[in-house]
Structure formats: C-alpha cells, structure tokens
Amino acid sequence: MLDGMNKTTDSRMKPRRSPGTAVMLLLLAISLLLGGCQRTEPLPFRLTNISGHMPALDFKLTDDQGKAVSGADYHGKVVMLYFGYTHCPDVCPLTLAQLHVVMQRLGKLADGARILFVSVDPTRDTPAVMHAYVNAFDPRAVGLTGDPGAIEALVKRYRSAFTREPASSDGNYEVSHSSAIYVFDRDGNARVLSTPADSQDDLVHDLNLLLSTGAPS
Amino acid sequence: MKLRTLSFLLAGVMLTGLSLTSGLHAAAADHIVASHAWIRVLPGNLPAGAYVTLENNGDQPVALSGASSTAYADVMLHQSSNEGGMSRMAMLESLAVPAHGKVLLAPAGYHLMLMKATQSVKPGDTVKLNLRFTDGSTLTTNFLARPADALDDSH
Known about the structure:
Chain A contains 6 helices and 10 strands. Chain A has helices spanning 2-13, 19-39, 91-106, 127-135, 148-157, 200-212; strands spanning 48-49, 60-63, 68-70, 78-84, 113-119, 141-145, 163-164, 175-178, 181-184, 190-194.
C-alpha cells in the first residue's frame, strides 16, 4: 500500500520539479521501496487480499486431541481457517477434500501449512468426533471445537455468522455457516480470502507465496 | 343377470386399475438411466452424501422424490446452496428431470443425504439405493462407496 502511494506521488510530481529535485525524490522513493521490502513485502496475491482488513488469528478452543489451544499455537504455520460441522454431508467434506488436494499440490511446503476446521456445532462435535473426521481428509488438518461462546466470538471476529436450522422430527438439524476459507500468514495475520467461486490454482498460488516467503519463526 | 353385469363391471374396473397402475409404474423409472452413482463415506455414523447423474430418455418430464435403502434407515433429498457467503442445505420435495434431459446430483448441489447406517459401509463397497419417483415407480441403482476425500472427477 505505502510503496504504491510513494510511486504514484513521485510520478505525479516529477514534471513540476527541477531535474535535481526529481532525482532526489526518485532516490528517496527507491530507498523507501527497498526499506519497505524488508518489512512488509506486498505479495502479488490472486485471491481477495484481506491484509489489514481482518483481525489476526486469535481464539481459545480445544483441538481434536482434547488439548486447549490458542491462535498463538499456530504461529509459524500458514493457516487455512474454515468453519463447518461433521454432520454436514456435502459442502464441508467437499471443501476439506479440495483442501487436501491443495496440500498435495504444495508438495513439501505443505508441512508449513495447517487446515483449521472449526466446528459451528460443538454440541455434536466432540474432540473425538472431530479427530476421526479431519484425519479422513488430511494429516495436517486440525479439528477445533469448544465453548459455544468462544466459537461464536471467532466467527464474529471474521465478520461471519452461523445459524442452527430447526430440527426435523428425529432431532437432526443442519447448521448454515460461512463458506469462505480465511488464510493467515506465519505471524497469524489475515492475508487472503478464498470463496467457492475462486479457483484452486489461485489458492495454491497464494499459499505458495506465503509459504516460500518468510522463514518459520 | 344383475350379478353377471356387476362382476363384468368389477372385472373391468380392476383391469383398468391394474393397467393404469402398471402403466404409471413403468413410466418414470423406465425412462431413467442412472450413472456415476457414488457415496462419500464419512467416519463413524455421520450422514453421507450420495450422488448420481439421471438421464431421462422419455418424452415426459419425471421427478425424483427420494430414495430408500436397506443400508440406511433414513434418506433425504437435499440441495446445498451458497448465498451471501453462507453455505446452506435445504430439503427438497422433488427434483425434476426434463424430458430428453438430465440432472446432476453432484457435490455442492443436489444430493441424497443418507442417515443412520444400519450396517457398516466402507469405501469400495457397493450399496443399493432404490431411487423413488413422484409416480411411485422405483429404480434400483448400485452406488459405489468412496472415501471421505474422494473428488467428483467423473463429470
């Protein structure tokens, strides 16, 4: 963002100034650009860039091993966050199956990534149920469940929602939930958003960028 | 005399009824060709999604109303949708297959939700589902059980 602004300012001002000032301004702009590169490199993402628009990864939930975990536990990994529930027979397993393909396409880099599947149905999704479920898709997928309040807070944090639909006569019910995949960098910063309309190639491309830049901290 | 007329009448009514019934029963299911039938098997006793392509080679539209199976106590016809960034599922009363057309039950769209498995279904198994049409006719179709991470690469 900043680098782009500097460039624009520089080219707009150039014709109005003397050659000496222009050169100085250009040098200043270049030094700013180089300086900027070391700190916040603007990555050429293909998906919707949410850098700076969505809050960093933060939650207190229980993983599929029954262990209490927080967002900080996944720092150092590139995270794909997806909300769903195990009694969802169609879209949730499809999304997780597709994310497994994405992981395979990343090759060795995939070890630096994690799929966090957060249940929006904590009543039925115990850590044990979640464990069997996520492992049916990918060894690098983690199932997260927990206190309904904590889950609601996480969903709201990413400006989404979930709704438990009315139960049928046998007590079964569906849960409407966000269809997006939120991608975070190794420092837990929100970076891109992948929706069902986006191509898998673009997700693989952007994950490659995040995984190949910045060593694990 | 009266009795004979009555019995003729009755026989006539019964015959008409029989031919009507069998005619109707033949209609929908007999014009449908099912292909790419598969089930995504999930761990434990979680509901599974079943998918199939239905082709109607008849001159009349037909409609799928559901299915039954000895392997699952409960089967529902569903439609997944994605609107405003939200994934939803809704129950369907029926799903039309146009005359000389086809309809796809495929991931993220129409599917049959199979619930309460009465037996263990493992990837590689073949499960019989009786597809039911709105006229009451049925079509027994073999569905291939595939693992949770299976992709719909058949279309």
